[in-house]
Amino acid sequence: MDLTTPLSELPGIGPSLSYRLKKLELNIVEDLIMNFPFRYDDFSNVTNALEAKEGEAVTLTGEIWSIKNVYTRSRKIITQAIFNDGSSPIELTWFNQSWLTKQINVGDKLQISGKVAKYKNKLSIVNPRWEKIHNTSFINHNSLHTGRLIPIYSETMGLTSKWIRAKVADILPKVKDKIEDPLPDNIRKKMLPLTDAIQKIHFPENYQEVVQAKERLGFDELFFVQLATQKLRQEWRNKPAIERITIDNLQLMNFINNLPYKLTNAQQRVISEVVKDLNSNHPMNRLVQGEVGSGKTVVAAIIAYLVYLAGYKTYYMAPTEILAFQHYSTLTKLLEPYGIKVGLYTGSKKFTKNKDLKFNLLNPKSQPDIIVGTHALLSAKLEISNIGLIIVDEQQRFGVAQRSLLRSKAKVPHFLTMTATPIPRTVALTVYGDLDLSIIDELPKGRRQIKTYFVPNKKRRDAYEFIRKQVKKNGDQVYLITPLIDESETQLSAKAATVEFEKLSTKVFPDLRLGLLHGRLKSKEKEEVLNKFKDHQIDILVSTSVVEVGVDVPNATIMIIESAERFGLAQLHQLRGRVGRGEKQSYCFLFAEAEISGNVNRLRNLEKIDNGLELAELDLKIRGSGEIFGIRQSGRLEFKIASFSDLTLIEKTKTAAQEILEEDPSLDKYPSLLGKLAGISHGAMPD
Ligand code: ADP
Ligand code: MG
């Protein structure tokens, strides 16, 4: 047996167990030993029945005096046993485990662990863990399921922690010597060796050992992500860039001064950061993060303008066709006055039909200077020479873009990614560690804050009446986001939206015009609904959260979010950013399905805080990394042990990764590290 042996090949694991193991993503031996407990039951208090007190978690060693199944009036089966440890007989009670009378017999010597309770006025241990006393010794101990810190694992139907625990105890000693510690000695100086850490996380002697084990295992998790991103960063930087882009400051100032508004300080700062990158010998790889409405497009346009002045072309990639079209028209307005040709290229014929005829994309002489499009831009069909800059809006798929560039091009263009997703600092340091980060942390002046309220269910009618009034009196428009059911646009969430739509249009707002939008609609239908909303033929747009409501509708002033507790705060903030785009005061109403105080207090943060990054940091504190929008979405980077809130560990691992790469950029001296990296699909490169 070694680490890669499929579990299904082990003795005693038949098809049905294999199936269950697969459900827990346990396929090979390594998966099993790297599947860590999520908590421990502390049964290390080995005592005797005489001293056991009600409410205490204890472990007793003794003999079964009697055992039988009893049927209650409600037809439940109770297994009752009298257990004697030599101090005082005590009753054991199990519910719904009638098979126990076949496994445990009178006279058996057992060790049992459980909480002492009063049952029918007698001290009893209910549903105790138990094991027969053998003379074998388990890892560091002579018991496995009782009398120690008991590891508890994620379970599935028919696969218990007890089974997993026994399997790990059986397998771990057999493969222990085959576990290689990939970390160089000087890095793991003060930490446990990997094998010890794995052993102690499963079978600790005490909590201190759990802490030590987690320290080592958490370090590894973060370290390898850091090593991967830092290595990528290094590779990118070492690629020769297209020539250094000389900046024409006069023209830059002229362009900025001719804008209909004054740039915010944050916009100006980001532009100067980018200018520095363009002017260096390395290709830029920068992420611009700025809230919805912070004015990222104009920053991108200015950069594209500078690149144009230096004689290069720009790709501008958007995640959807609707957004590509929107950017195309914005950029055309901003840049055509300067004699810049803007073209559009998307996969669908609809948009390209009229537009790309304007420029013959295949003829270098008539190629546009800036080509806006979807990821279709990267397809081989489009051969545009002299690309100096690639701008990727909203981050989607940009990893793929980068990767294909790294592979294909001898010289790489500068790379600028833009996102409205707030990225906490610790995440930026890890997942996006290969990128330089610029933050637009300021909205253009004059934006009104969106008044946000958590609305208890008993006030739902009032909220509906308020909405009706706003719609009828002021002609306002409304988004209503239905519960998030799944990250992906499933049938279920489409159904939830449809049900809500039916209810609202027949019962609540029969007098208003409602529209329905969800991911199961054909793209033509989606577009139709969005256009109707834009043309004000729809008052209330009922929509799932995943639909890209890319269309900017300044007249929409009310955002209602149902079951808001299911969303992260930062995500709610992004959703509400779809209103508040015009002159009028905008509102956001949050409803919760479960009005428990934790939910309500969490949601109330949105009434006070108007800063996406601050909310993202709060998410991290309250609910952990799973809530960081974008990370969970792409399903990557679920750490088992490490946490994004552990800044110290993040910095420590980053430094360690950088030091190793400085000393040995190719990692030739560390084949074990290279081996680990090959298996990591890391942050900035989602597929
Ligand atoms: P986002 O960062 O969400 O992409 P946009 O680039 O779409 O934001 O900008 C939102 C709106 O703000 C646009 O209508 C844009 O013209 C306007 N805008 C951008 N910068 C400024 C500024 N400095 N002052 C006033 N309005 C601005
Ligand atoms: Mg934008």
Characterise the protein shown here:
The structure is a single chain. With 687 residues, this protein is an alpha/beta fold. It folds into four domains: 65 residues, Orthogonal Bundle (DNA polymerase, domain 1); 105 residues, Nucleic acid-binding proteins (OB fold (Dihydrolipoamide Acetyltransferase, E2P)), CATH 2.40.50; 156 residues, P-loop containing nucleotide triphosphate hydrolases (Rossmann fold, 3-Layer(aba) Sandwich); 159 residues, Rossmann fold (3-Layer(aba) Sandwich), CATH 3.40.50.300. Helix content is 37%, strand content 18%. It has 21 helices and 21 strands. It has a seven-stranded parallel sheet. Strands 16-21-20-17-19-18 form a six-stranded parallel sheet, with helices on both faces. A hairpin with a 4-residue loop joins strand 3 and strand 4. The longest helix has 32 residues. The two termini are 34 Å apart. Adenosine-5'-diphosphate (ADP) binds next to helix 9. The site of adenosine-5'-diphosphate has 15 residues, from helix 9.
Integer count of domains: 4
**Unreliable segments (pLDDT under 50, ≥5 consecutive)?**
350-354, 629-636, 682-687
Shape: globular
Question: Helix amount, in percent?
Answer: 25-40%
What characteristics describe this protein?
7-stranded parallel beta sheet; 21 helices; DNA polymerase, domain 1; globular; 4 domains; alpha/beta; 687 residues; OB fold (Dihydrolipoamide Acetyltransferase, E2P); binds magnesium ion; single chain; binds adenosine-5'-diphosphate
